[in-house]
């Protein structure tokens, strides 16, 4: 059963949706062969089949998927709806077209021809239904220079270690790090390099627009075998042990922050003291924290450390001044 806990719900759902039509078209396949072909363990496949047994298009017994593998051979029934060839709705086709057009503009994209071919086929199949896509504009993440982006992509492909001079906003200092690149991702309008950081002894995400200098070393950059890519399905925010620790009083109406972001501790505050929660959280980006507190509109108060208290107060005062000038 090892490894189940590290898989995200999104990754498992994607596998299940792919697995059902695959098994429907291979009725009676040997359980172990199916596991090998699907790239999972027999235990994982049996866990998936147990889950499929509870899935369907309704809640009545005849609306649920039938899965049988007791004799060592897998049979799937009542899953014709899921096993049908994919048919895109208008909104899905438009979303894919816009996404492919954005992907086509990504600097340094290797197989651009494949994107062009997929886009042409999709536009041809969608016909006039794809017209709304012309009114949608998708901007590609532009954080960091295209030169840095191209170099880190090449380092990932060639498995070369890189040396970074990297700005840490929380401490307003630049650090020197050797990193074994694992992948380059674009999220929330920014590009990130994820890799094994030899300084931290762990996997780290580096925003490309904060890389002040990058040197590709003539050293093998294969990450350690135990290095794992982060699950980014819930965003890039993931505090590290050496990030700045901040204490925030979340007044009633802002306590959702404790559920939405990872916090180190949370303590209820009595109504006599304003109510809500006192939380302590870590962040490497005080600019992000400032924006969060300002967005809370007075329902969030930073209490520590003093420099962040001052930054939040100065930003709020500047905003009020700007309102007055308007």
From TrEMBL:
InterPro entries: CBASS_pafABC_assoc_protein, PafC-like, PafC_HTH, WCX_dom, WYL_dom
Protein name: WYL domain-containing protein
Span of domain WCX: 253-320
Sequence ranges assigned to domain PafC HTH in this UniProt record: 12-123
Entry-linked PROSITE patterns: WYL (PS52050)
Span of the signal peptide: none
One Pfam family in the UniProt entry: HTH_PafC
Domain WYL: 147-216
């Amino acid at each position: 059963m090892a490894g189940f806990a590290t898989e995200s719900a999104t990754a498992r759902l994607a596998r299940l949706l792919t697995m059902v039509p695959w098994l429907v078209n291979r009725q009676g396949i040997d359980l172990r062969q199916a596991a090998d072909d699907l790239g999972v363990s027999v235990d994982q496949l049996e866990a998936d089949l147990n889950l499929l047994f509870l899935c369907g298009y309704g809640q009545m017994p005849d609306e649920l998927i039938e899965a049988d593998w007791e004799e060592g051979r897998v049979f799937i029934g009542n899953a014709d709806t899921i096993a049908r060839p994919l048919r895109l709705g208008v909104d899905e086709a438009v979303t894919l077209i816009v996404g492919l057009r954005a992907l086509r503009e990504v600097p340094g994209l290797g197989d651009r021809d494949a994107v062009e071919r997929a886009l042409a086929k999709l536009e041809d199949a969608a016909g006039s239904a794809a017209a709304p896509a012309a009114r949608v504009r998708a901007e590609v993440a532009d954080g960091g220079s295209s030169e840095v982006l191209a170099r880190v992509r090449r380092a990932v492909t060639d498995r070369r270690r890189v040396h970074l001079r990297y700005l840490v906003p929380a401490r307003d200092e630049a650090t020197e790090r050797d990193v074994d690149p694992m992948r380059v991702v674009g999220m929330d309008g920014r590009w990130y390099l994820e890799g094994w950081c030899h300084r931290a002894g762990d996997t780290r995400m580096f925003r490309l627009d904060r890389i002040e200098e990058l040197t590709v070393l003539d050293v093998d950059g294969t990450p350690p075998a135990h290095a794992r890519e982060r699950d980014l399905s819930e965003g890039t925010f993931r505090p590290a042990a050496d990030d700045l620790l901040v204490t925030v009083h979340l007044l009633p109406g802002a306590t959702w922050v404790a559920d939405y972001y990872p916090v180190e501790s949370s303590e209820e505050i009595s109504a006599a003291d304003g109510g809500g929660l006192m939380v302590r959280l870590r962040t490497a980006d005080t600019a992000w924290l400032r924006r969060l507190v300002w967005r809370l509109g007075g329902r969030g108060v930073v209490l520590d450390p003093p420099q962040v208290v001052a930054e939040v107060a100065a930003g709020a005062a500047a905003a009020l001044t700007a309102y007055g000038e308007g």
